[in-house]
Amino acid sequence: MDLHVDEPARDRRVRRTRAAVLQAAIDLVSARGTTAVALSEIAEAADVSRRVVYQHFGDLDTVLLEAGLDLARRELLPRLAGLRQPMDPREETLAMARHFAEHKVFYRALFTGSCAYALDRGLISLLIPVNRQSVEHLFGDRATGEAVDDLTAFITGGVGSFVTAWVIDGAHDPEAFTDRLIAVVSLFLESR
Fold this sequence. Notes:
This protein is mainly alpha-helical. It has a single domain, classed as Orthogonal Bundle (Tetracycline Repressor, domain 2), CATH 1.10.357.10. The chain is built from 9 helices and no strands. The termini are far apart.
């Protein structure tokens, strides 16, 4: 048997299985508004065995974390990448706010569940490269590489906390949230 022929097919099956499990988790959490779903329910919705879910992810928190990060990778990052360069801060912020507004029930459940810290850290890691480009554009050669990295981490973490609070407790309007966030960031940047 030629392993080179079998391997891509197997990889496709693995990717399809993982995608089905992650989508099932998103759908169930979104429908219920809570992370109180069982792995067996996710497995059934994905049309795989519970054992397969355990083999791929290990536990419910990992499934939920990966589902949240996968959703951001598939939908949020392409939106941000599709914006014109250099990025308009309001356009970038509004694209992010619209993503979280569209999936507010899902993200609210995750941000108030047991995987909240890991999701926060994971989303920050996904957004740091995007935000680093904006910080480099704003500060150009006036800041060292380390200062750009530090400022990027600082802004991304702060914005992440603001987004989390809005997703959990805020009004649904992404335009109003964007205006609030831009106003706060502008005040911060004006003080430089």
